[in-house]
Task: structure prediction
Amino acid sequence: VTLRGRDLHLSVIASPLFNSEGELIGAIESLRDVTERVKSQQKLAHHAFHDTLTGLANRALYLNRLEHAIRRTKRNPEARIAVLLLDLDRFKRINDTLGHLAGDSLLSTVARRLEAVVRDVDTVARLGGDEFVVLLDGIAAPRDALHVAQRILEDVSHPVRIDGHEIRASASIGIVLVRGEYDNTKDLLRDADIAMYRAKDKGRGRYKLFHAGLRKEAMRHLSLEAELRRGFQENRFELHYQPQVD
Result:
């Protein structure tokens, strides 16, 4: 109910009232103001699914929405979604130089800029640290996801003034387009992560669209690294000097 412009939540208990002949003649009602309890429950529910620093959806809420979106692409071959995994470049340097409060301020600014780029039906989440993810739901064509990624790169790069210091951030983005290819959120985020790190390898401050070749290349690199480590542990390398002759 609303009383004097204030919304109230009431707990109502009603009991029938009978006369001596057993006829119903009215009711006895007991009303209790439970507004603070309801607000406390709502606050706890919000914190369970939202990041406390930025107010964005957290990993749990994002994965839930992503799972539902994947199911829709399975049911409808025409449905298309996109996942944009974003990581701030050299964020640790900002934390180490200006302190964690400055880093937190930058993260909050980036969160607001991401929200300003996407539509109401899309989801922006903070997965942790300086890693954000965007779910574009119901896009018409791949170029829509690329356009959003470009907008994000431009907006994130605008200077931020924190404690008298001008900070210019940049981000690397991995993009995965989905039309029923994925069965779970884990594989989808893995591929977005692969594309994002490829964007970093290419020079940061850019986006990379995932394709199956990137996954194969990542597996080759992982296998090579494991073989090299095993070779060093087993002392299978020999050092040779080759003269350079002019």
Notes: The helical segments are 35-49, 59-75, 91-98, 100-117, 142-157, 185-201, 212-233. Residues 54 and 108 are 5 Å apart (CA to CA). The longest helix spans residues 212-233.
